[in-house]
Amino acid sequence: MRNYRIRFSLTGFLLYALQLLPNIIWMLVPPVNDVLTGNSSAYKTLNIIEGLFGVLTVTLMIFLLNKAEGRNRNFYIGLAVLFLAGYYISWIFYYNGVVAPWLLILGIACMPPLYFFFAGLWMKNYVLLVPCAIFGVTHILITCMNYLGA
């Protein structure tokens, strides 16, 4: 942890804001067939784990900086951008009435944790990778339970 410092990261904030954009639109102008409003688990523990590790991931992205100079290879940010683009495309499908389980799970549940993971790698913020993975697993698990009937 000595390679890290607590400080506001404009880069981390902007990366988070890019991921948050579809959610802001969703809150302001929900789609006609909005099945995602009920995407929480019947098991409160899963909701708590998902929320806690989601907030921890974002907090670490915005406020924990690696002192090492520069960024990791562009490969990581390229993958992050790819997952963010997939997330945006999934929201476009969702707003056009496509609410198939594959879209909700692969597009809307899987893409944000993968985006955060690769953005974290690019920023050399290795500390956020573990909470991000836990958030991702619970986020995907909850969505699968809700839309695959598990």
From TrEMBL:
UniProt keyword terms in alphabetical order: Membrane, Transmembrane, Transmembrane helix
Spans traversing the lipid bilayer: 12-29, 41-63, 75-94, 100-119, 126-148
Protein name per its UniProtKB record: Uncharacterized protein
Lineage of origin: Bacteria, Bacillati, Bacillota, Bacilli, Bacillales
